[in-house]
Write a structure and sequence with these properties.
This protein has seven helices and 19 strands. The chain has about 350 residues and is α+β, with helices and mostly antiparallel strands. It has two domains: about 140 residues; about 160 residues, no CATH class. A hairpin with a 3-residue loop joins strand 18 and strand 19.
């Protein structure tokens, strides 16, 4: 009897172990299925990404025929930012399931504060992936995410990345907009109709460069008169400075009244205007950037930033620009003497 009892006991343990084994395998399989649903293996097939948060902010990213991306059907997207998102979409992986103790809390947080992500592939009208991106876990090693129509949230991460992934799914427009002001690489320089530099503080040093009928450029003074004998090499050299010009970023630390006070109270330094042959005009006015308790390199008091200034693009967008970028553009008409 005692031997039979032990045999039944051992049989029971074996059956329990087998049950636990299959249960764990089933759970693992379920997790792997959920994981495959988050990642997109072929990001080259991604043609559209839609992001929406609980505050009704929306971002629509669309791939163009030339491989670039546009945001909200208006602005070019910064290549580094869209590549970062595509890389995340491709390499996102499971860090851990959400613990039972955290389960209800995480679900509530995702319901109250998350970003909905819709990923479209191959120009299809229906998204291939839809999920919600929430906050980070306590040690900031992962981000809570939930597939649409699923009740199982996960802690997701990218291998080798420490930190919150939610910022890569930003619903803030300026995070996506390209900071390129002018871009005329290679042969596209020939699409420039004119470049005008209006030096407001020394008007007689202003000039304009205009395309001529022979695919070259001519120089005109501040009165609009063609300058005879200007160096053709220097004109071409100057035009090439516009192949790629960017601003540093948007001034988002100041309110609108501050921006208005800069425009109203600080005289314009220079106005750079580029017009293309198809009639597109991009102009930027530049202003000194005030600073408090400023010191120069010799510890003298200064009123304005020596590295940066403000710019107003097409009377609309208030940005920060660097002297390092704009100094090569900021010449006067005497630069073009032979």
């Amino acid at each position: 009897m005692r031997l039979k009892h032990w045999l039944y006991t051992l049989l029971g343990v074996a059956v329990a172990a087998i049950a636990i084994y299959f249960a764990m395998n089933n759970q693992s399989s379920t997790i792997k299925t959920q994981l495959r649903d988050f990642a997109v293996e072929d990001t080259a097939s991604v043609t559209k990404i839609f992001l929406a948060d609980k505050a009704d902010n929306t971002i629509l990213l669309e791939r163009q025929d030339d491989g670039t991306w546009k945001v909200n059907d208006t602005y070019l997207v910064r290549p580094d930012v869209i590549n970062n998102l595509l890389g995340t979409i491709n390499t996102i992986t499971l860090r851990a399931p959400v613990s039972k103790a955290m389960f209800e809390s995480v679900v509530r947080r995702l319901a109250g504060n998350s970003t909905k992500v819709e990923i479209y592939q191959n120009n299809e009208g229906t998204p291939s992936k839809v999920y919600f991106v929430g906050s980070s876990n306590q040690d900031h090693t992962g981000t809570f995410m939930l597939m649409e129509n699923s009740s199982i949230p996960f802690v997701m991460h990218v291998e080798g990345h420490y930190g919150f992934l939610g910022s890569r799914y930003s619903t803030h427009l300026n995070d996506w907009r390209s900071n390129t002001l002018w871009s005329f690489p290679g042969e596209k320089l020939k699409t420039i109709a004119s470049i005008k530099v209006d030096k407001k503080r020394v008007p007689n040093m202003s000039f304009e460069i205009k395309a001529n009928e022979t695919n070259g450029f001519d120089l005109y003074d501040y009165q609009g008169k063609k300058v005879q004998g200007a160096s053709a090499d220097k004109i071409i050299f100057y035009v090439k400075q516009y192949e790629s010009v960017s601003y540093e970023g948007f001034e988002e630390t100041k309110n609108e009244s501050f921006k208005d006070s800069i425009i109203s109270n600080i005289p314009v330094k220079e106005v750079f205007t580029v017009t293309t042959k198809d009639g597109k005009v991009i102009s930027i006015e530049t202003y000194d950037k005030p600073i408090q308790d400023g010191k120069d390199y010799e510890d003298n008091d200064i009123l304005y930033d020596m590295d940066r200034m403000y710019g107003l693009i097409n009377k609309e967008h208030f940005v920060i620009i660097q002297y390092f970028v704009f100094d090569p553009l900021n010449v006067d008409i005497t630069f073009f003497k032979p």
